[in-house]
Amino acid sequence: MRYRRMVDGEPQFGQSQKDFLQGIDAVAQAIQTRLRLFTGEWWEDQKDGLPVWTQIIGFGGNNKDKIGTVITKRILETKLNDTRLVSGMSNVVNDFNGITRKYTYTGSAKSIYGLITITNG
Q1: How many domains does the chain have?
Q2: In sequence order, which ranges of 1-121 are alpha helices (DSSP H)?
Q3: What are the tens digits of pLDDT across the range 60-77?
Q4: What pTM was computed for the model?
Q5: CB-based contact 115:89 (threshold 8 Å)
Q6: Which of 40, 67, 110, 121 is most buried as measured by Cβ atoms within 10 A of its Cβ?
């Protein structure tokens, strides 16, 4: 599997094979890219994306598990050319700090190449 390398949110070009990731690094990049796409941002499929505005913002700390479920579902749906890249999630932890208003998600994604740690914090 090959996936275009992203640096600071920008796809890399002009370096031939160095512009692509393979194996577990490619799956990690695919997950990261998938989590950064918001619903309605992609012209080809307006329904694809993380539903930040409709299912996450406004739920607050009382619904941290619901937010975690939305994120986990998005990770599990990661695929390339109709091939699912993630078969399961484990060690998922959701936390919301009401003082700093920071939500933290951590988990381990079981990919076709091995475990990948996912975290936003």
Answers
A1: 1
A2: 23-36, 64-76
A3: 556 778 888 889 999 999
A4: 0.80
A5: no
A6: 67
